[in-house]
Amino acid sequence: MEDIIRYPIGKFTAKESYTPEELRSFIHRIEALPAKVEQAIAGFSEAQFNTPYREGGWTVKQLLHHLPDSHMNAYIRFKWTLTEETPTIKAYDEKRWAETPDTKADPALSVALLKALHAKWISLLKEIPKEELKRQFFHPDTKKYLSIDSLMGMYAWHGDHHLAHITSLKERNGW
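Below the sequence we write its predicted structure tokens.
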């Protein structure tokens, strides 16, 4: 049961390549995320925002602040990968980021940031030429090379993953 709560849509598994339909789906999912998040938290009370999605997990408020933090890093990684030859990206400690003082702020700030960021990100993703999708960056922590098309899939999954944390918490608690 713990694994279902922690990974309500399963874990992400990258593929070697993606069809044009899969890539369009990734872009659509990334584009739709801010509105789905906004809908999922409509009418939430402060107590609901401060409820962890699982025992020992982040609160809804932390999840809401984490999404734009993570996706800002992703956006920058896309830009580096498109403008540099196999850059080594900067890793960050997402757990510590989820504990910085701004994660106590009104989650509406991060929802607004997510909306603006995704609008700009989508304008980039929709225009990446097919031949650029295999460009890669190097992740210094995992020691892996990751391609743009794989990142598109990963971040489509990432948004859906955290959205499912919120929606499944709502369902379990009857909110």
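The chain has seven helices and two strands.
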